[in-house]
Amino acid sequence: MDKFTGINGESLRRLRKERALSQQDLERISGVAQHTISVLESGQRGAKASTIRKLAEALGVKPKEIIRI
Q: Disulfide check for 56: which of 13, 15, 17, 63 has CB 3.0–4.6 Å away?
């Protein structure tokens, strides 16, 4: 089972907006549901490693750029 990891919602939102993407655009590109993106950006919960990889790939960044350290 995938372990949940803290995600830096502010970084995720900033990276998405820098690329002029809506949450729906990011959903389409990454395959991660818009609701999940919204919850992650608000910091309400962590994400599975597989979700972090999908989002990072879609945004063209390394996963460490959206993980809360």
A: 63
